[in-house]
Write a structure and sequence with these properties.
The complex is a heterodimer of chains A (239) and B (219).
Chain A (H helix, E strand, L loop, with lengths): L2 E5 L4 E6 L3 E7 L6 E7 L2 E5 L2 H7 L10 E3 L5 E8 L13 H8 L4 H4 L7 H10 L12 E3 L3 E3 L5 E3 L9 E6 L3 E6 L16 E7 L14 H16 L5
Antiparallel strand pairs in A: 1-13, 2-12, 3-11, 3-13, 4-5, 4-8, 4-12, 6-7, 7-11, 9-10
Chain B lengths: L16 E5 L4 E6 L4 E6 L6 E7 L9 H8 L9 E3 L5 E8 L13 H7 L10 H11 L14 E3 L22 E7 L3 E7 L15 E6 L5
Antiparallel strand pairs in B: 1-10, 2-9, 3-8, 3-10, 4-7, 4-9, 5-6, 6-8
Classes of the chains: A alpha+beta (239), B alpha+beta (219).
């Protein structure tokens, strides 16, 4: 990997990644959560679409082999490695009221950078740097978090889903604006505001081969790659 | 949440508004706080791909993730409170003869059809095209593609397995089944009556919906 940094819990960041980039997220202590949203930097109206992603791959959880789709039938990134096995994309973010109700309010004035930031506000701040607002937000990914469903539809948060050293590798298939935060998952029942650091490493991905695991994971992904390749070949400039 | 079927005592003849929505078209209307909207699955297993917005501030809209998280269950039914992106209640399901509705599966689009079925499906009519036409024809509402997000599929059944799978199962709905929503604030409702021709869940046969509105003081 070419670049490596540690993001403390309860923080946010954003970056634009070119096609062919590998982004590695590592859960340093166990129990981390990384909220993430994806946009096309040339046309941010094209954004991550969780329903399309789940529906076309017949899955509720995200793990190795799955691709994260835009609303335009293209693939922002593929999950090429995953030691965790289950990542959530249907629970959204905590907001200010939820954080205050569960963990108490901690003002910036008193706590300084150890205040209790929430995922919703984190996305508003990062998105605002690119002209995006609340109308542009969507159902996000919550890396490292698992919410399983019982037969009657009840949602259960699994606090033991991700252990220290848990890792997920994302290979970007098109140029992508990534918004991320390390704020707690909205269903985390921990007694204290969970402040879990995440290591983020960036490097170059291996070229995608014809028998690529994500591409061949299901026929739908083959077509998603074709849509993305058409865009890269004749549409957006991929530098 | 076990499956609950709750019929309504409201009488169609007392509705202030009643309209058939043919398959492949949209319906957009403002519903005032306290008014009740009924959506009828006229011939059975038809999907009503529905979005809600605060009429006062349309940037605040229906949020599937806030709705299911706050009720702790991924399926919608009688008693479900439909929440906004600010986690406020937009509407509540006050009657439902079906028992379960989907809010995970999203709406069909020309682009997602290329992935799900075949690249050559890219020119087939789809829900998100109907929504785009709706907002283009109602520019005064200030809505655009930015606002077209994660919807409810009334009358669709999309079960999740404990192992994390997702499937489109046969619907629990049937001819004449309906769902009723009471508006908790003034809301804009946008329905695409799904034109999907590629999915067996509607027997490859899109059919009409009917919408009725009762005023707040009518039971």
């Amino acid at each position: 990997m070419i670049y490596d940094t540690l993001i403390d819990g309860g923080k946010h960041w954003s970056l634009t990644l070119r096609a062919g980039t590998l982004l590695r997220l590592s859960d340093e202590e166990g129990g981390a959560n990384v909220g993430m949203l994806f946009y096309n930097p040339l046309n941010p109206l094209e954004r991550y679409n969780a329903p399309d992603t789940l529906k076309c791959q017949h899955t509720f959880k995200l793990t190795r082999g799955h691709c994260l789709y835009s609303d335009m039938g293209r693939i922002f990134c593929s999950i090429v490695e995953d030691t965790v096995g289950w990542h959530d994309t249907v629970c959204g973010n905590a907001n200010r009221a939820l954080v205050a109700a569960r963990w108490g309010e901690r003002s910036y004035q008193a706590a300084r950078n150890d205040w209790t930031q929430n995922g919703h506000d984190a996305f508003l701040v990062e998105g605002g740097k690119y002209g995006l607002g609340r109308r542009d937000l969507a159902a996000n990914v919550n890396w490292f978090s698992k919410v399983a469903i019982t037969d009657d539809g009840t949602m259960r948060f699994d606090a033991a889903n991700s252990q220290a050293g848990g890792r997920v590798d994302l290979r970007f298939e098109m140029d992508t604006l990534v918004l991320l935060h390390t704020c707690p998952h909205p269903m985390n029942p921990a007694a204290d505001y969970p402040r879990k650091p995440v290591r983020i490493a960036i490097g170059r991905a291996e070229p995608v081969k014809g028998d690529d695991f994500c591409r061949t994971h299901c026929p739908e992904n083959g077509r998603g790659f074709e849509n993305t390749e058409l865009y890269r070949a004749f549409g957006a400039a991929s530098t | 949440m076990s499956i609950v079927r709750k019929a309504s005592e409201r009488i169609p003849a007392e509705a202030r508004f009643r309209q058939i929505v043919p398959a492949g078209t949209y319906w957009i209307e403002t519903i005032r706080q306290g008014q009740v909207l009924r959506i009828v699955d006229v011939e059975g297993n038809q999907a009503a791909d529905t979005l809600f917005f605060s009429a006062e501030d349309p940037a605040e809209r229906y949020s599937a993730v806030d709705t299911i998280r706050e009720q702790g269950n991924v399926y919608l039914g009688y008693g479900s409170k439909l929440r906004s992106t600010s986690a406020r209640v937009l509407a509540e399901i006050v009657a439902d003869t079906v028992g379960r509705h989907d809010t995970l599966g999203g709406a069909c689009a020309a682009e997602s059809n290329t992935v799900r079925y075949a690249l050559e499906k890219r020119t087939m009519h789809a829900c998100r095209d109907s929504w785009l036409l709706a907002v283009a024809e109602h520019e005064r509402l200030g809505l655009s593609k930015r606002d077209l997000a994660h919807n409810i599929n009334f009358f669709m059944n999309v079960p999740v397995t404990p192992e994390g799978g997702l499937s489109f199962a046969d619907g629990l709905s049937g001819p004449g089944q309906y769902v009723e929503l009471r508006a908790a604030m003034d809301i804009i409702v946008l329905i695409s009556n799904c034109p999907q021709l590629n999915n067996p869940c509607n027997a490859y046969n899109p059919t009409p919906l009917e919408v009725l509105i009762w005023d707040a003081d009518v039971r």
